[in-house]
Every structure is written in structure tokens, then in C-alpha cells.
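Schema walkthrough. Field components (list of strings):
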Amino acid sequence: MKLQRLFAGLLAGALLLGSANAAEIAILNVSYDPTRELYQDFNAAFSRYWQGKTGDTVKVNASHGGSGKQARSVIDGIDADVVTLALAYDIDAIADRGILPLDWQKRLPNNAAPYTSTIVFLVRKGNPKAIKDWSDLSKPGVAIVTPNPKTSGGARWNYLAAWAYALKQSGGSEAKAREFVGQIYGNVKVLDSGARGSTTTFVERGIGDVLIAWENEAYLAIKELGPDKFEIVTPSLSILAEPPVSVVDKVVDKRATRKVAQAYLEYLYSPEGQDIAARHYYRPRDARIAAKYARQFGKVNLVTIDDTFGGWRNAQKTHFSDGGIFDQLYVPGGKR
Amino acid sequence: MASLRRFSPLPGFGLAMGYTLVYLAIIVVIPLTAVGAKTFTLGWDAFWAAVSSPRVVASYQLSFGASLLAAGINVVFGLIFAWVLVRYRFPGKGLVDSLVDLPFALPTAVAGIALATIYSQNGPVGKLLEPLGVEIAYTPKGVLLALVFIGLPFVVRTVQPVLADLEKEVEEAAAGLGASRWQTFCKIILPHIAPALLTGFAMAFARAVGEYGSVIFIAGNVPMVSEITPLMIITKLEQYDYAGATAVASVMLIISFVLLLIINGLQGWMQNRYARGA
Amino acid sequence: MSASIALHAGSLERQETASTREPAWVRVVLVSVALTFFSVFLLLPLGTVFAEGLRKGWGAYFDAMVNPDAWSAIKLTLLVAVIAVPLNLVFGLAASWAIAKFEFRGKRVLITLIDLPFSVSPVISGLIYVLMFGAQGWFGPWFYEHDIKIIFAVPGIVLATIFVTFPFVARELIPLMEAQGSEEEEAAVVLGASGWQVFRYTTLPNIKWGLLYGVILCNARAMGEFGAVSVVSGHIRGQTNTMPLHVEILYNEYNYAAAFAVASLLAVLAIITLGLKTLVERQTRRQLQDIDTPSGE
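Field assembly_structure (string):
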């Protein structure tokens, strides 16, 4: 009886304390295009989790756009507490301006990428052009839709996956890869400025035979826009796309939101966070969740950016900077 | 300030002029200088490299070429519009007259999405053109189409009032002297409305060169083929190349300024020639 | 700019005699060309916006409107217009008073500078404010330290909107005031009226329709601007998205019907604007005729 009373008192006290201290916090997650649906669910889950844990109400605001554009907003001073972008290079660019530390990728497990994805093909039902692998994309008469690697983060993964494939074939070399990728981009019909634009072009406008896309984006397109109209083709080899996340130190220190921002990102690694990611067709890191959703994802040989391209900074400089290999592919007289 | 102007008995010049200059400086001049200042951080060689790389040059060709062509198309159709609106009666005329300005009032993004929907190969018009082997959306033709759309009101609205003010007696006199209708049009009417057509052309052109929102949805954005110059600015920004972006921007700004000086010169010329006589 | 001339347009019609009329077939051809072009280029896009918006039925259409994010976008768009339009109105009055009523050197350059925002690419219009107020920009660090947000917040969106709508009121009033001359005002001054009285009782009644016309055009652009606002907005859902940006977001979420539903609301605003404009045009024309006739110029 006494114990019960004590408990009740404690509980009431805790509630009182809780409600006295319960604050309303708002944090801003600046993210890239294909994560809209993922973070809509995740933000709601995190708010519940955080309220249960601390009693505070947290509202997570969201901003989505092309990964490079979003990084630029952070550089130009948008008050992002966390960034969740398409590739490490974009967060590197933020770090270069001293807004967060250069070793940001070491602060969270798995290269600071709580979920991964890869690059697959979306084709029209029945696969009329019989597209099975990257080599089928370089054949004449195949019309490809993919975003522009200069303006879209996802598109850079697409490009590098094709490059890696050519490199890993028997007798593969830099020169062969360049020719192969040149042939593929010679077949590209529309280069939208973002991943979402490409999906719309392919799905809604009926342009092209194949869309090179994020795996999660391809599944989402099928789910939202017609399982009876499209199918996914997983190539024999693709790239391990790691969309990384980070706390933005300069902002959280100023707004005193580090604790909740940090918890927000850590929650992505929790079983609940991993489950939500998997439900939105991202490949989870957590082995148990991965096993649960194993049947959802195609089997594919994955290469990493660090092993094949020597990291993002290198890849960016060689391939995507002005005058880099991607630009050369399009210069008249260059290999097409 | 007072020494700048000739005497006038009216009050308020200092206040009005002062306010105008301050507001102009804050909103327009100082921000635009920021573009110049950022560009100067580049140095001449880097500037030249940024504004003359093959992809950027190809984008000038598309942007300026398509804008010229679009403005030309608008001159022809704008003249026809102005002509039938001023001179003929036909069903739906009131509707046509008020909706000619639609491209001006409709947000450019909405126009772009709508045009892409209509002219892509599964859209209502694209579907009809596809069997003929004509593709519009996602080719340079798509860019042209969007630019024609946004430029139409400018020619119509500059030519319409001039055509309306044209005195009938002149045409009657020409007819009385035995001129055919076509001769009258070429020798009398066309010279009269030429400055207006030219002004409309220049305005449609100026607007088209910088257009972004409506074009981006319908251009294929393929390098060297269907990338417009404003997209090159965005592309450079996405690579955190602020100075390169402002370099291309300042090239466009200078062109805009020169174009406007020409337009205003033309308008001054038109006013001197016709306004008092009208 | 178009506006200044468009003023006199509208359904002006002339009485034709046989000698100034084209053969019937020419008239039919010209009208058909115009109507075809009109249908394909103007009616079809407009119709498409509504048809696509209603693709999932009226229920979905209204759901798209009452969605909280859509509401906040509508409110933000109205707020921005309510701030930007009056500021440009005051500027337009001051600029046209100085330019039309007085002679001074450098007038053409001043007019060209006022026109400049019209032909500056919207992309650049947004970029300039990032260069000014961005964290890496000229004044950005100072504002950051003082915790004042310009870009990625309402002030930046307002600034970009003011920039793109800058010329409209001024360009509307300058030719109108020039055409009216300053004799009436000078007479009022001679009769002992104060500056404010001259403006209030002599000038304002003469320019009120032209002024309204400029405001309508200015407002249409303010509510519909996409490119420039997109650069400075930051796209924070429910906070810094205007209606055109909200359309883009819905479109990017594969929510095509809702995107076109919100777009159709913008189209309705455009049509209302054009309707108002037609009305104002009639009034202005009447006013211009009143001026032209007695002065005998």
C-alpha cells in the first residue's frame, strides 16, 4: 500500500515535472528529393518517441530538393539542425565552409549512412527492349531517362554505377569505361535536373525505354503510379549508395538543439527507424531488419565508392567538375 | 539635385527623386552590383573560361537562337492577333482579347507543367504529332514552344494600340489612288506599325532569354542540345561554383541592359513620331 | 512595360468601308489562324490545368485546397503580395512624379534601370539576394550574428518578389503622366495649393485607373513568381513555400492531381486578374479620351 502510494506520488511528480519542463522544440531536417515519404513517417515516429522519452514535443520541419541545392541552402545560412543528403560530397562541401567538422562521417556508425540504396532500372511492363544489365543500355535504339549528374546527386550514383560495371568486366579499363559510359549517355533522351523530374518524365510522360533510378525511388514509383505498368530490373553489378546524415554543428550550437538533433539521427539507427526505412524501400543496416525485408530487394553485387573511385572528392573532381569526364562525353568530337 | 533639372514650378522633385533613387539602389542596383563584385573575384582568365566553355556556349546558342526565333514567330502571329482584334468581328473575340495576357499572369511553373503535359508524346497534342514523327517536348522545339507561349502578349499588346490609332483616311486615300489592299498594307500600314513590331519583338526576346520556370519542365536539358543559359547558372551553383555562376549571370545582365536601352530608345522614337499625332 | 502600351488596347474597333476592307477569304483565314493559335497555345494549357486538377474528382480537388500545407502556402503568397505591392506602388508614384513632371539629365538611363528587373532572368533575381544576405554573402554574417533572418525566411521572399515586380506600377504611370502633361498641376500651384493637395486633388484623380492597372499587373506577378522565389525560399514545408512552390512540391511527390488543383487556383487568380484588367482598361481608355479631346493635341 505504502509502496503503491509512493509510486503514485513519484509518477504524479514526474508528470508534473515533465509538464513543467515540457518544451516545444522545432528542428529542421534539410533533405534531398526521394526521402519525402520516408521522413514524413519517420518524423511522426520520432516525435512520439521523443515525447515518450522526455515529455517534450518536437516538431520536425522538412525541406526537400535536389541534394546539391539543399547543401547550398545550408551553406547560405538556412537553419538546418540536421542534413540528410544524397551523397557525402554534398556534406563535405558544407564542412569545407566550417559549418560542421570535416570528420563528420566518423561521428555516426556505417559512414554516417543509416540506410543504403543502390541503382536499378525501371522498365515498361514486359520489358519490351529486353533490358537485363548495364550492357543492354549502350545498345543503339534504347532510349534512356536519367537525371543530370551535374545537378542531381542520384544521377551521380547512376553514372558511377555504369562506370564501375564497365571497369569490372573482363578486360575492363578506364578507356573502355569511358567509351561505355559515353555510349550510354549518347542514348539518354532527357536529362532532368532532379531524380523526381526524371521519374515523372519516364512514368507520366511515357518518354524512354528505361529509367536509371534509385532502388527506393523505383519501388515507390511502382507503388504510387502503377504496378501493372512497370517492372524493376536489377543489374548484375551496381554501386552501394550511402546517403549520409549529419548534425549541423553551427546551427544546433546556436539554437541549443544538439541533444534532440543527435537523438533524431540516432533514432534512424534504432530498430524502429530501420524498419521505417525498409518500409520505404531503403536497405536497412540492422541485420535483423534486413533479414525481415530480405525478399523485398533484388540480389546484386555491390561496389563502393571508396574502393572503386577513391572516395567522393576524387570522383567529383575526375568526373563531374567543369571540364571533367562527364563534360567531355558531350563535347563534339569527344567519344559519344 | 536641383542643378540637374530645368526649372519647374511643381513641388516635390527632391522628395520624389530622392525616394526613387534610394529605393532603386536598395532593391536593384546594390544587389546587382553584388553579381559584378563576385564575378571580379575570378580574374580575367577564369572568367573567360567560365563564360566560354563549350556547354555554356551551346546554351547561349540555344537561349539566344530559340528566343530570336520565338520572338520572330510572335511578330507574325502577334500581328495577326492584333489585326483581327482591331479590325474584325468574330465569335469569342472578347475572350481572345482578355486571355491574350494569360501567359503574363499565369505562373511560369504552372505554364511549364501544363505545356509538358500537352506536348509530351502521351499528351493530347503530342499524341497526334507522334505518328507524324514530330516530337516537341524534351527537344529544342519544346524550348521554342515555351518561349513562344510567354512572349505572345508583348507583340500583341504593343501593336494593337498603334494599329487602332491608324487613321482610316490614309488607307482610303491609298485605295482611291488605285493601290491594292496588299500594296496598302506593305507601303502604308507596315511602315507605320514597324516600330511597334520591333519593340514587341525586343520585349518578347528580352523576356525569353532569361525565362526559366516554364522552359525547364519541357526542355530535355541534354548538354549541348537542350540546355538553356539560366540552367547553366543553376548547374554552376549546384557545384558550389558561385563565381562561375555570377560570371554567366553578368554576361546575361549586360545583354539585358543593352537590350532594354535599345527598347527604350525605340519607344522614345515611337513616341516622338506618333504619340503627338495620334 | 507591355502594360504601358497595353493600356490603350482592348476591344478597340473601327468602322470599315469597302475600300479599307480585305476580301472575305483573307478575313476568314486570318481569324482562323488567330483562333487556332489561341486554342492551341492559350486555351489548351488553361484547360489542361483544370482537367488535370479534377482528374481524381471534386473531393480530391477540395482536399488539395484545405490541406494545411496548401493553406500556409496560400497565406504566405497573400502576405508577400500584401507587402510587396504597396511598396512598389509608393515607389511607382514617386518615380513617375519625378520622371514625368520634371526634366533632368540621365532620364533614359534611370528608366532603363527601373525596367531592368523585367528582363533579368528570375534565376539571377534570386541569386543576387543570396549573394547579399546569404551566410557567405556581403551582409549575411552581420544579420546572422544579430539573429535576423532574411533569406530562407519571409523577408527574402518579399525582397525577391519586390524585385521581379519592381517596374510594373512605375512603367504604367510614367507614360500616362507624360501624356497628361503638368499644366493642371502648375495651375493648382499658382492658385496656392500645397504639394500634397496638388497630388491628392489634381494628379491622383487623373491617374487612378492607370495606377489600379499597374497594381493589378504587379499583384499578378507577385503571386505567381516561381524562379526567383524558389532560389531564396529554402522550401521548408508549411513555412516558406508559396503557392507556385507548393505546386512544384506536390508535383514532385507524384501528387499530380493535387498539384494541378493548386495550380488551377493560381489560374483562377490569373483569370480574375485579367477580368479586372479588362474592366480597368475600359475606364482608362475613357479617361484618355477625355484628356485627348479637350486639349486638342
